[in-house]
Give the backbone structure.
Amino acid sequence: MTADGGEAVEMRSALLRLRRGTGLPVAFGGLVEGQRQVRIAELTGTGTRALCGLAVSSGNGLGGKAVALSRPCAVTDYHDSRHISHEYDVAVAAEGLRSVLAVPVVVRRRVRGVLYGALRSAQPLGDRTLSAAVAAARDVEQALVVRDEVHALIAAAREPQAGAGAAWEQVREAHGALRELAPRIADPALRADILAVCGRLASAATVPQGRERSVSLAPREVDVLVCVAGGVTNAVAAERLGLRPETVKGYLRAAMRKLGAHTRLEAVVAARRAGLLP
């Protein structure tokens, strides 16, 4: 697979976190392309372009070993290590790297990429350094899981469904899941696409073509109503949305006022009639 723009953003952010968390001056990495081959595409702290675009095959070098074993690997002196193969010594030497660690990004038991951190001196990399690097890789894994779920939900939402009642229940579930995932997406373009799909799902349910909505709610007010429509409590909604329960209550009150509703159920019904919820 080839990294899209959003995945590149996630990798760059993770590499910056890796440097901050470990204190290592150099970090680089990439996602798996094709048959377990990592293409080094993101670099920070490097002084040359020697590593940029390097294709690392499974089993070869330090990163290839991490891919093959699906676990972190490290060497104190890359050039002299007897525990790895040395296909990439020229590029590593050109950058002047000595101590290097490689952490695989594993999603659903499949390696999706590798993060590297490195020193230009030969010295052991301690457990704290390795733990911080692993934490950065876990962040990428979580981001990729979210992106996979988003793409699957968007695809499912666009597919025609048989049976009107069952179809709208599936649409509502997809709409709620997408609204819940959207704030966790770092890539602004993908986040905007998700919210646009949510808008189409909501308006397709009740608003006739050419008719404008009479009510406008803030995004978080809609998010809270999505949770309410799913039958969850304010406390559960707060946990899902990363908000305080008092904040959820405030958004719900504001939405009810705008919709002219006196109860939670009335608010959901009114939001559906206004094309704000499917």
Observations:
- The CA atoms of residues 115 and 191 lie 25 Å apart.
